[in-house]
C-alpha cells in the first residue's frame, strides 16, 4: 500500500469529522412545514415547495435515511497504489447497508456495514486466495456539486466520503507449493483459531445520487478501502505489508420521517431564499413595516417642526409666532430682561445677575465688580460671596450652579487684585429667593450673586 495515499485518506477523514462537529452545533428548530404550490415571478413553471426557512434549523426537515447497495469488489484500485501479492485480481460480489444523518444541506454522517469477498491468483506459481470480509465504518459525506435542471429541488448530487472503522476477514487459499491455508479454521497442520482477523480500515470514495421521488434516491459510488494489515490476501511480503480493495456499487436510499417535511439533502437553499423573498405573507409584513416606519418618520418631523423659528418645536411652543430674533425660554415665550439701572451699574456690592443655567459673568456686571474690587482693596474688608439660583432643575443641580456662580465672581475679584483670603464663597442653591419663582421675571432676579460684608 502507498503510505502517502493512506496519510491523505486519514487527513480527509479527520477534516470530515471536524466539519461534522461544526455543522451539528446548529440550533434545531421545531417549525412545522406545509406543502404549497408557488409560481415563480420570472418563469411560467410551477413547482412544489414548502414554507421551510433556510435558517430555520434541522427540525423542519427529514434528515435520516437508510440505504441498501450491491456491487463488485476487486483488489485493484482506480488510483493505482502499491502492487498486489497476486497477478490476477478477480471481480467478486459485495453488498451493504447504510444509515445516514444529514446534518446540513451538503454534509452528513453515514454508518456503513458491508460484506463480500475478494479473490485472486497467480498464473506462475499457481497460488490463489479468497477472502470473506465484513466491515463497519463511520464516514463524513459531502455533497460537492448539484444539478437541478431548473427545478425547485436538486435532482442530482455528486458526493465524496471518507471515514474509518473496523474490518473482519478470513483469508483462505493455496500457497505456491500447494499448501492450503485458512486463517480461521486452520489448514495444512495449522491450529484453528476460530476467530476472524480484525484490522482498522479507512474508506475513501465518491459517487453520484439521483432523486427518484420525495423518499427514494438511486446511488452509484466507488470506494477504496485501505486495510491496516498485510494479510488481507493471506500473504504478507516485505514489499507489500498493507493491503487494500475497492468496491463499486449501486443501490437505493430511502428517506425516513414525515412526508410533510422535505428532505434536507435535496433542498435547494437558493430556491428557498427566492421563495422567502417572494412569500406573500412576508411581503405583507414588509409593507406593514414600511407603513409603521412612515408613521414614525412623520411623528419625528412633527416633533422637529418649528414654524416661528425660535428653536422650540410647535408641539412644545406655548407662545407661537414670536417675532424673529426673540430670545425665548424653554416654552417658546419671550424672555423679558430687567432694564439696567445706570445709576447703580457701578455701585459696589450690588447683585450680579446671570443667564439661565449659566455661571458665565455678563459684561454688564463688570462695572459693579470693578467698584467692589476697588472698595475691598482700599478698605481691606472681608466679604462672603453668596451664590443663588432660580427654582428650575433639581435642588442638587441648583446648589452646584450657585457655587459655580459665586466662584466666577471670586475669580474675577482675585484677578483684579483682591486677596483671596478676603473672599469666602457660600452656595445657597434655590433657597432664599428674593422674587417669585413662578414668574420669569422673578426667576431672573433669583439668578444672582450677592455680597455680605463681614
TrEMBL record:
Q: Name one GO cellular component term.
A: pore complex
**Signal peptide (UniProt feature, chain positions):** 1-25
Q: Where is it localised?
A: Cell outer membrane
Instruction: List, alphabetically, the CDD domains matched.
Output: OmpA_C-like
Q: How does it sit in the membrane?
A: Multi-pass membrane protein
Matching InterPro entries? Bact_OuterMem_StrucFunc, OMP/PagP_B-barrel, OMP_bac, OmpA-like, OmpA-like_sf, TSP_type-3_rpt
Q: Which Pfam families match?
A: OmpA
* Main location class: membrane
One of the record's GO molecular function terms? porin activity
Statement: the UniProt record of this protein carries the keyword Membrane: yes
Q: What keyword terms does UniProt attach to this protein? A: Cell outer membrane, Ion transport, Membrane, Porin, Signal, Transmembrane, Transmembrane beta strand, Transport
Give TM regions: none
Task: Tell me which Gene Ontology terms the entry assigns under biological process.
Answer: monoatomic ion transport
Q: Which domain of life is it from?
A: Bacteria
Domain OmpA-like intervals: 341-454
Q: What is the designated name of this protein?
A: OmpA family protein
Tell me which species this is from: Mucilaginibacter conchicola
Amino acid at each position: 500500500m502507498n503510505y502517502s495515499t493512506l496519510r491523505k485518506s486519514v487527513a480527509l477523514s479527520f477534516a470530515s469529522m471536524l466539519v461534522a462537529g461544526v455543522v451539528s452545533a446548529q440550533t434545531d428548530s421545531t417549525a412545522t412545514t406545509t406543502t404549497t404550490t408557488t409560481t415563480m415571478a420570472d418563469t411560467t413553471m410551477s413547482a412544489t415547495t414548502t414554507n421551510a426557512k433556510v435558517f430555520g434549523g434541522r427540525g423542519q426537515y427529514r434528515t435520516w435515511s437508510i440505504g441498501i447497495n450491491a456491487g463488485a469488489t476487486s483488489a485493484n484500485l482506480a488510483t493505482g497504489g502499491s502492487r498486489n501479492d497476486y497477478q490476477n485480481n478477480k471481480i467478486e460480489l459485495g453488498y451493504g447497508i447504510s444509515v445516514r444523518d444529514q446534518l446540513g444541506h451538503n454534509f452528513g454522517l453515514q454508518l456503513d456495514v458491508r460484506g463480500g469477498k475478494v479473490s485472486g491468483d497467480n498464473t506462475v506459481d499457481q497460488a490463489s486466495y479468497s477472502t470473506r470480509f465484513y466491515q463497519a465504518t463511520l464516514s463524513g459525506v459531502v455533497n460537492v456539486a448539484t444539478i437541478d435542471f431548473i427545478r425547485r429541488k436538486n435532482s442530482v448530487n455528486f458526493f465524496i466520503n471518507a471515514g474509518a472503522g473496523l474490518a473482519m476477514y478470513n483469508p483462505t487459499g493455496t500457497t505456491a507449493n500447494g499448501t492450503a491455508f485458512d486463517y480461521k479454521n486452520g489448514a495444512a497442520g495449522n491450529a484453528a483459531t476460530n476467530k476472524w482477523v480484525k484490522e482498522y480500515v479507512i474508506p475513501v470514495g465518491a459517487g453520484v445520487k439521483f432523486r427518484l421521488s420525495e423518499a427514494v434516491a438511486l446511488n452509484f459510488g466507488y470506494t477504496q478501502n485501505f486495510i491496516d494489515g498485510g494479510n488481507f490476501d493471506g500473504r504478507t511480503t516485505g514489499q507489500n505489508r498493507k493491503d487494500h480493495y475497492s468496491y463499486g456499487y449501486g443501490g437505493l436510499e430511502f428517506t425516513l420521517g414525515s412526508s410533510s417535511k422535505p428532505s434536507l439533502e435535496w433542498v435547494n437553499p437558493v430556491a428557498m431564499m427566492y421563495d422567502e423573498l417572494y412569500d406573500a405573507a412576508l411581503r405583507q409584513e414588509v409593507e406593514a413595516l414600511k407603513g409603521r416606519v412612515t408613521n414614525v418618520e412623520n411623528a419625528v418631523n412633527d416633533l422637529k417642526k418649528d414654524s416661528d423659528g425660535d428653536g422650540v418645536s410647535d408641539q412644545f411652543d406655548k407662545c407661537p409666532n414670536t417675532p424673529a430674533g426673540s430670545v425665548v425660554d424653554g416654552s417658546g415665550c419671550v424672555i423679558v430682561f430687567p432694564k439696567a439701572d445706570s445709576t447703580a451699574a457701578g455701585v459696589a456690592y450690588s447683585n450680579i445677575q446671570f443667564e439661565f443655567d449659566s455661571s458665565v459673568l455678563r459684561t454688564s456686571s463688570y462695572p459693579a465688580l470693578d467698584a467692589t474690587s476697588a472698595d475691598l482693596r482700599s478698605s481691606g474688608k472681608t466679604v462672603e460671596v453668596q451664590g443663588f439660583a432660580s427654582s428650575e432643575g433639581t435642588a442638587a443641580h441648583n446648589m452646584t450652579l450657585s457655587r459655580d456662580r459665586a466662584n466666577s465672581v471670586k475669580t474675577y475679584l482675585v484677578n483684579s487684585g483682591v486677596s483671596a483670603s478676603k473672599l469666602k464663597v457660600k452656595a445657597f442653591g434655590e433657597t432664599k429667593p428674593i422674587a417669585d419663582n413662578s414668574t420669569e421675571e422673578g426667576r431672573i432676579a433669583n439668578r444672582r450673586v450677592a455680597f455680605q460684608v463681614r
